[in-house]
Amino acid sequence: MAERRGHARFLTEQPPYSIVNRAVETAVLPTAQRYNLGVLS
Question: What is the residue-averaged pLDDT of the chain?
Fold first, then answer.
């Protein structure tokens, strides 16, 4: 819908995240930041 109306698309990533498994902090977050993606935890 955004593209049809000439707006930017939302770009987000929703990785599994927990206090025990924090691999997302070293694997996903730097990549999301590099490509200006939002992250939903």
Answer: 85
Looking at the structure of the chain, the number of domains it has is 1
pTM more than 0.70: no
Q: Kindly state the tokens that stand for 2.
A: 């955004």
Other beta carbons less than 10 A from residue 21's beta carbon: 10
CA dihedral for 14, 16, 17, 22, sign (positive or negative): negative
**By residue range, what is the domain housing residue 10?**
1-41
**What type of residue sits at position 31?**
T
- Tell me the two tokens of residue 1: 């819908």
Find the distance separating the first CA and the last CA of the chain, reported in whole Å.
24
